[in-house]
């Protein structure tokens, strides 16, 4: 199961959406620590396909962390 993360940025209408394999509580702690750190910090997040995102925390406006949904494969009949 993956965890969905959405991040909004100051001065931008676009948001960054990431699916991560890390546990939700661990992600919440990592994000909180980065946002409350003094000075210019960087939040590092990895997605489910191996991409790493380096996000400057001074530009983050909001963060949403939610449970991901398992992907269904196939067709559903009526």
From TrEMBL:
<protein>
    <submittedName>
        <fullName>DUF3107 family protein</fullName>
    </submittedName>
</protein>
<dbReference type="Pfam" id="PF11305">
    <property type="entry name" value="DUF3107"/>
</dbReference>
<dbReference type="InterPro" id="IPR021456">
    <property type="entry name" value="DUF3107"/>
</dbReference>
